[in-house]
Amino acid sequence: MSNATTSIKKFFAECEQEPLSYSGAIQAYGALLHMNSRQEITHISRNFQEILALPQFEIGTRVPDFLIEFTKNLADEPNSREFFDEALEGQHYSLSLALVRTQTYGILFEFFPNQSKSLLSIQAPSQIYQSFSNWQQVSQARQVLIEWIAQTTGFDRVMYYQFLHDGDGEVIAEHTYSNYQGTYLGLRFPASDIPLIARQLYLLHPWRSIYNATQAPCPIEGHSLLDLSYSDLRSVSPVHATYMQNMGDVASFSLPIKLQDSLDAMISCHHTSAKTLPLADKVKIFHAVRQFNIQLRDFYTRQRVKTLDEMQHIYHRIFIEIQKITATDQAWEHLGQRLQTIFDSDAFILVGGSLSHPLSSCPIHPEFLQALDTWFTDQCDELITTSEHLQNTLGMEILTDFAGFCACKWHFLDSSDLYRIYLLRYEHLSDVYWGGNPNKPVEYHDGTLGIAPRRSFSLWIEKRLGYCKPWPENTQLKLLKLREFLKKQASFN
């Protein structure tokens, strides 16, 4: 393994281990208090008295009644939330209040100064409330939503950041103002830019706000570190703060797009100076994004059902055709040829069970087949799989013209033998447009943090070698339906 590869893996590991939820500090523009289930103060931000213009609260004392009054309707389930616009008068501004129930059934009180007036005078676009019938409507609604958020919030750049199956992300919609340099539209960003630990936190929040990434955090006082997993005021990671500054940004506001309990995408707003939104505006934007998310989730569900129904019909026809073929090898070859067309592959291999030898649509090098079949049979726990970079998947360099594959393994209804189908694709040369060199951590170290955020986000074109043409999103569904169908059939004997 090269030193560069080792450095990249070390960088990824260190990013994942950063204790984001236990930073011990908040963003200093707001104030925080944590109350336990006995209504006692366990943690309080050091700036609490200054922000709220109240006498100093002491750790271990009871929370004042005027604050407890806000909690009377807060649900008991962890991550339940309540929002109060202009709840109190602070030292310099009126304060909005966000309440959130913690995992230990305590309550976080987060106070936000209302430094600006509401900008949400324009209604959310009607497209996000309408059911999507096709991908074009999804794309149009996405762009309209992005433009509405940009127009009503005043952020310099608003992006729709789509996560890809390999963990990388791509900007697929964007709105920028004319005085804001450059565009990220169509650019890809490596998975390490938003580590898994950060993605998991996004799933817990309606949004994430960063007022000023250059501002020093405010410590939280208490006898232990407070879990800030549900806190929007949670301090900014030093790595992320440097990352933002390297992008030329100071403030951000991000909202998750969720599908099947996973982070599918993010709407990310960036600004070149310190900026926050009134809490009421955040809530309104969240509801608009959630409505889009609901329609998107419904569209994906309908697309999934449509694909499954289509494949049920297609596979049924294939097996009717096979029943008319008397020779076993010819039946297998017919199945392989039909699947090769369905999956748009360049070749197929059928292995196992009662087959005396592998069947394939073209000559296959024995060492390649052995390596592929050993990996899928003995090392892969999945019953179906896809790969766009065969050498990486197998963990070895092996002589073959193929660059990617999808595969399925199953037992026929009347057999305990394990069968495998491999559908192969040749190498597909392509250009990948990155927002900066994705391997930047190897080239640059800031000398302070111990891990290095990327420094450059200028267009960087990768000539991608050794990859096949990407498998469509519905490939896994097609494989699942194929396996389900094969399991119900008698073997071709």
TrEMBL record:
The keyword Iron does not apply. InterPro entries: GAF-like_dom_sf, PAS-like_dom_sf, PAS_2, Phyto_chromo_attachment, Phytochrome, Phytochrome_cen-reg, Phytochrome_PHY_sf. It holds the Pfam family PHY. Residues 137-303 form the Phytochrome chromophore attachment site domain. GO terms for biological process: detection of visible light; regulation of DNA-templated transcription. Keywords: Chromophore, Photoreceptor protein, Receptor, Sensory transduction. One of its GO terms (molecular function) is photoreceptor activity. The keyword Aminoacyl-tRNA synthetase does not apply. This is PAS fold-containing protein.
